[in-house]
Design brief:
Layout: E1 8-12, H1 15-18, H2 64-78, E2 82-86, H3 89-92, H4 103-118, E3 122-128, H5 134-140, H6 147-162, E4 169-173, H7 184-189, H8 206-230, E5 235-241, E6 244-247, H9 252-275, H10 282-288, H11 299-305, E7 310-314, E8 318-321, E9 329-332, E10 335-338, E11 344-345, E12 351-352, H12 354-368, E13 372-376, H13 394-413, E14 417-420, E15 443-445, E16 457-459, H14 461-471
Parallel strand pairs: 1-2, 1-14, 2-3, 3-4, 4-5, 5-7, 6-8, 7-13, 13-14
Antiparallel strand pairs: 9-10, 11-12, 15-16
Length: 478
């Protein structure tokens, strides 16, 4: 079993968690900039006014803004074929509704793309990765306001034209389906409902939230159409988080509940972005939740014509769904579920399930029949820096090795897979908890949970391992 010869090996980051330079180069504030750090036991806070007694980790991230040449050289040393990154919308349009873009921000990304080209690395660019200009939240109520479609398309047009010869792979919205859950209000949709203080416990308005998702889906489709008109060679994909689950028992009610979970969480947005229309099961959900979507002329046509070229997704773990009282609960990416007794658990309480990745890939490819791209996968764990500066992370190597083997099995099953970009290839701030100690990278960044440190970069054992994996196109996993 082997991957295709032009398989895109690389790594993934996001501007809001990695870039830093939050108030430099003409950049305006974004939603994550008013989120404090949290922990496994304490939620991040959302504060409209910055407080001196609290830490806002996204302000500095991993300071890529000042370390980009060094970081890209490290990616080149590993042999990356692709680097998944995001453009900070508020670095291009500081307020989101500006007419003229920020030239200094555009020049910054020109530099990044030029440095990547020097290393032979293709950029895979998220247009919106949990980073809406804060002004659009405060002035317009985020994606609940239809005006944000036009603001987003102005931004897309700007970067599509500016970088049309430097970027060929694009993603519209990161983990767009997180918005099907209340936790997606602020981070995904830019909605800050009155009374919301804790990230994990947001005030929710289901009608507003699903109307906002509709606006994002229309914006995504229109961005695909726009991008293809500017450069027909663009490959533009969607990005969903796969919250893959199993029925906890063979009780038919558990099986039906699990099926419904897959439909509304994993397929609701994907069906629109790939098939061009809402799935049949949405009708009952809307009816049962008193959701009445406001459609405008041209929405249906845009969804129909703006389907994506490939389906990218994040995959970290699985959990179980049950109608019964579960024995134990486990954490997952942005959610929680019933524990699976057959799976081991990570330091952060996430189940480890490589076979679930193969299962997920087969489900997706069977449903959509377009190329897949695993653009996030990895293990968040504490790393120990030894006295000599070395970092031994066999737990990370083991996790990635088994998930690469699962991808190989899926390819052998007949799944068409474009590439693999493990999450946080260089350590960055956690989106959910705001922690730095929850590390994913092949490269260690000397920074603690409060932003203290030298920001020195150190290669971990996994760095050298992944370099061999790429050089052998996945054949050497030892």
């Amino acid at each position: 079993m082997s991957f295709q010869k032009d398989f895109l090996w690389g790594g993934a980051t996001a501007a809001n968690q990695y870039e830093g330079g939050w108030d430099e180069g003409g950049r305006g504030p974004a939603g994550p900039d008013i989120m404090t750090n949290g922990s496994r036991g304490a939620s991040r806070l959302i504060t409209l006014k910055l407080r001196d007694d609290l830490h806002y980790p996204n302000h500095i991230g991993s300071d890529f803004y000042h370390h980009h040449s060094e970081d890209i050289a490290l990616m080149g040393e590993m042999g990356f074929k692709v680097f998944r990154m995001s453009i900070s919308w508020s670095r291009i349009f500081p307020n989101g509704d500006d007419i003229i873009p920020n030239e200094e921000g555009l020049q910054f990304y020109d530099t990044i793309f030029d440095e990547l080209k020097t290393q032979g690395i293709e950029p895979l660019v998220d247009l919106s990765h949990y980073e809406m200009p804060l002004n659009l939240t405060l002035k317009y109520d985020g994606w609940a306001n239809r005006k944000c479609i036009d603001f987003f398309l102005r931004y897309c047009e700007t970067v599509f034209y500016r970088f049309k010869d430097k970027v060929h792979y694009w993603l519209t919205f990161n983990e767009i389906n997180v918005a099907t859950m209340p936790i997606g209000n602020f981070m995904s949709l830019g909605i800050l409902n009155p009374g919301t203080v804790e990230f994990y416990h947001q005030v929710d308005d289901v009608q507003k939230r699903f109307q906002a998702i509709h606006h994002q889906l229309v914006a995504s489709a229109r961005a695909v159409i726009l991008g293809h008109s500017i450069n027909p060679a663009f490959q533009i994909g969607c990005m969903n988080t796969m919250m893959s689950t199993y029925a906890a028992t063979c009780d038919p009610k558990d099986v039906l509940q699990n099926q419904r979970y897959w439909q509304m969480t994993n397929f609701y947005c994907g069906d629109v972005q790939v098939r061009g229309e809402y799935p049949y099961f949405a009708q009952r959900f809307w009816k049962e939740n008193q959701i009445d979507l406001n459609w405008r002329e041209g929405d249906a046509e845009a969804l129909r014509n703006g389907t994506v070229d490939f389906f990218s997704f994040s995959y970290y773990q699985t959990f179980c769904v049950t109608t019964h009282v579960p024995k134990d609960m486990v954490n997952a990416n942005m959610t929680r579920g019933a524990a699976n007794e057959y799976l081991k658990i990570s330091q952060w309480g996430w189940p480890i399930d490589p076979d679930g990745l193969r299962y997920t890939m087969n489900e997706l490819y069977g449903r959509y029949q377009i190329p897949l791209f695993v653009v996030e996968n990895g293990l968040g764990a504490k790393d120990q820096v030894e006295a000599d500066g070395s970092i031994h992370d066999p737990y990370r190597i083991e996790y990635l090795r088994e998930h690469i083997r699962a991808m190989e099995e899926a390819v052998e099953d007949g799944v068409e897979l474009m590439g693999y970009t493990p999450w946080g290839c260089i350590d960055l701030v956690s989106a959910s908890s705001g922690e730095m100690e929850k590390r994913y990278g092949f490269v260690h960044v000397d920074c603690d949970n409060l932003g203290n440190g030298t920001f020195e970069r150190r290669r971990k054992d996994s760095f050298h391992w992944y370099k061999r994996v790429i050089a052998s196109n996945g054949e050497d996993l030892s």
